[in-house]
């Protein structure tokens, strides 16, 4: 019996549990911290949201599948608002502990940011529009600038300030059941505002059209948009190199700004770079910042939530632990243990890194506990992992190792590795020899060893060969598409590859039957039986085959999925981009 997912694991409606990274492997695009409740909310792709209380994560499906751009909570977090790229406003009700639909704009205007003031809710939207809620009534305020979008919104000193493209600005003063607005028209030479923050009395803004500048202005209850716009653009402070995309403010001397992969802390006049080495965020885009009593939070990338401390402003810690390495392949040993490898050389047992090879790894095959083979490029063309350390293979016929290898598999004491040729290992001598070459520019990409007399290999240009224990024979795959993987059961064989190509052949005398799936690049295919087969690929694509029909599976990730291993019909593990590990358990 397969154990259920650990407490707090996000599980998609199709039954795929997110083992890593946790809680969600989607890109986080908005973050908010409510000081009254101590709750942190993040929202992101695929309509997914998550709440952090202490060290406990809870994940939610909001009822939509589009990108969520921002989130804001009323004090106490009894009501939480999120806005989407498809013009929908969503409401979390703490009493029901569920998200529900609240409002949708006509024409599905993209909604970019949300804030509340005086019991009202305000949303910065595309087409020069602000969506506003007074009481239970929603309405639109339009500035008549259909080509420009409001991108950010905040509240300060009793007024709402919305900023947008080409210097567009609106300032709103709540009054009973309405809000009085003044506007500042967009101009070609003005900054393209992308985010704004406030300490309650003053606002700070950043623009995508200007490199490394932080703008500020004092907000008064009587401030009009023209007055505030002129002050905001008057004297920017040069803080950093690069375009800034987010800002969060605790106090005039405690300001955080972020570019796509860097964060600075500022006292209002200078900026210090935050070290992100410990959170491995340098290669991942950061989307949003939020303040909390002790510092700030930053989110983005494939499930990053980073905590920043005002007491130690040059350090950072990760609140969503787990490697973000691209996991390229996965296998299980005969005891059911799962081992994955990554493009940075990581070797993982379950979700934990066991060791690191000296170069990128692309394939893994486990003969049993303490006996795992890995292949890749660089120094570690072929390695053997004993559960603690990995040892490089150095004995090759002719003295020359393959330039790179993509996959490895074996059975009955024999091991084959494929990539720049098809290679096998002589068990007695430990020497590797090339059995099949490959044309220049082509690569063997996938292998399935059903037995020592039944080996399938596929590669670029639709190339396919089969070994019957005596010789290798070329097989017509019926395509010229790159084939990334192959799996067989009895006489039936499946292939998966680029351009949405997934096909099945019942036996050597039957034609190939191509499945009608999405146009994703399919990277791995495996099954538990002829009527229980899974294929995975780019964009989080997973399809399940029941012997007659392929059915899409909701994975709740957009990460590229690279590898799959099937223990049984109720025990399937998938790995991929950004450290993604998914597990399916239909029990």
What would you note in describing this structure?
By secondary structure, the chain is mostly beta strands. The chain has a domain at 32-272: YVTN repeat-like/Quinoprotein amine dehydrogenase (Methylamine Dehydrogenase, Chain H). Helix content is 1%, strand content 55%. It contains 1 helix and 57 strands. The strands form 14 sheets. The chain has a 5-stranded antiparallel beta sheet, with no helix packed on it. The chain has a 4-stranded antiparallel beta sheet with strand order 3-4-5-6, with no helix packed on it. The protein is elongated. The N and C termini lie close together (8 Å). The mean pLDDT is 94.
How many strands, which pairing sense, and closed or not: the largest β-sheet? 5 strands, antiparallel
Assign the structural class, choosing from mainly alpha, mainly beta, alpha/beta, alpha+beta, or little secondary structure: mainly beta
**How many beta-strand segments?**
57
Q: Estimate the mean pLDDT confidence.
A: 94
Cα shape = elongated
Q: What is the topology, as strand order, of the major beta sheet?
A: 1-2-57-56-55
Q: Kindly identify the CATH topology of the domain at 32-272.
A: Methylamine Dehydrogenase, Chain H
What's the CATH architecture of the domain at 32-272?
7 Propeller
Oligomer: single chain
* CATH homologous superfamily descriptor of the domain at 32-272: YVTN repeat-like/Quinoprotein amine dehydrogenase
Roughly how many Å is the radius of gyration? 27 Å
Percentage of residues in strands: over 45%
Number of helices: 1
């Amino acid at each position: 019996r397969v154990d259920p997912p650990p407490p707090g694991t996000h599980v998609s409606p199709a039954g795929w549990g997110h083992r890593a990274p946790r809680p969600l492997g989607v890109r986080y695009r908005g973050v908010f911290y409510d000081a009254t409740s101590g709750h942190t909310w993040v929202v992101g792709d695929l309509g997914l949201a998550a709440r952090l209380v202490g060290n406990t994560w809870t994940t939610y499906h909001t009822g939509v599948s589009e990108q969520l751009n921002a989130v804001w909570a009323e004090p106490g977090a009894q009501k939480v608002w999120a806005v989407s790229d498809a013009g929908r406003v969503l409401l979390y009700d703490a009493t029901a502990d569920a998200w529900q639909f609240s409002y949708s704009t006509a024409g599905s205007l993209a909604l970019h940011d949300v804030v509340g003031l005086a019991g009202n809710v305000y949303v910065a939207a595309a087409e020069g529009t602000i969506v506003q809620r007074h009481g239970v009534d929603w309405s639109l305020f339009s500035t008549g600038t259909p080509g420009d979008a409001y991108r950010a919104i905040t509240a300060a000193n009793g007024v709402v300030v919305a900023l947008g493209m080409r210097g567009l600005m609106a300032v709103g003063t709540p009054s009973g059941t309405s809000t009085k607005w003044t506007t500042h028209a967009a101009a070609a030479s003005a900054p393209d505002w992308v985010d704004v923050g406030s300490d309650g009395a003053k606002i700070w803004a950043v623009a995508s059209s200007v490199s490394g500048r932080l703008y500020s202005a004092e907000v008064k209850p009587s401030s009009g948009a023209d007055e505030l716009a002129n002050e905001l653009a008057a004297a920017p402070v040069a803080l950093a190199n690069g375009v800034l995309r987010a800002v969060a403010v605790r106090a005039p001397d405690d300001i955080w700004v972020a570019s796509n992969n860097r964060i600075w802390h500022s006292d209002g006049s200078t900026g210090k770079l935050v070290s992100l080495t410990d959170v491995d965020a340098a290669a991942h885009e950061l989307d949003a910042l939020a303040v909390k009593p002790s510092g700030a939070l930053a989110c983005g990338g494939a499930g990053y939530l980073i905590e920043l401390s005002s007491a130690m402003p040059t350090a950072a810690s990760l609140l969503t632990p787990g490697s973000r390495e691209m996991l390229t392949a996965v296998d299980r040993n005969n005891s059911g243990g799962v081992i994955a490898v990554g493009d940075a050389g990581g070797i993982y047992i379950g979700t934990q890194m066991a060791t690191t090879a000296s170069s990128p790894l692309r394939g893994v095959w486990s003969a049993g506990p303490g006996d795992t083979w890995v292949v890749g490029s660089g120094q570690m063309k072929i390695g053997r992992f004993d559960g603690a350390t990995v040892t490089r293979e150095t004995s090759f016929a002719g003295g020359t190792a393959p330039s790179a290898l993509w996959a490895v598999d074996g059975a009955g004491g024999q091991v084959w590795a494929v990539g720049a040729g098809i290679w096998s290992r002589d068990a007695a001598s430990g020497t590797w020899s090339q059995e099949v070459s490959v044309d220049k520019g082509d690569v063997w990409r996938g292998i399935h060893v059903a037995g020592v007399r039944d080996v399938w290999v596929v590669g670029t240009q639709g190339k396919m060969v089969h070994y019957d224990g005596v010789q290798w024979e070329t097989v017509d795959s019926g395509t010229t598409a790159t084939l990334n993987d192959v799996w067989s059961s009895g006489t039936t064989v499946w292939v998966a590859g680029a351009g949405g190509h997934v096909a099945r052949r019942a036996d050597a005398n039957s034609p190939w039957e191509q499945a009608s799936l999405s146009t994703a690049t399919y990277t791995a295919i495996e099954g538990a039986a002829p009527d229980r087969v899974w294929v995975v690929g780019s964009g989080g694509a997973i399809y399940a085959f029941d012997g007659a029909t392929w059915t899409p599976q909701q994975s709740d990730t957009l990460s590229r999925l690279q590898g799959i291993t099937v223990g049984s019909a109720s025990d399937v593990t998938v790995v991929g981009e950004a450290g993604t590990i998914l597990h399916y358990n239909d029990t």
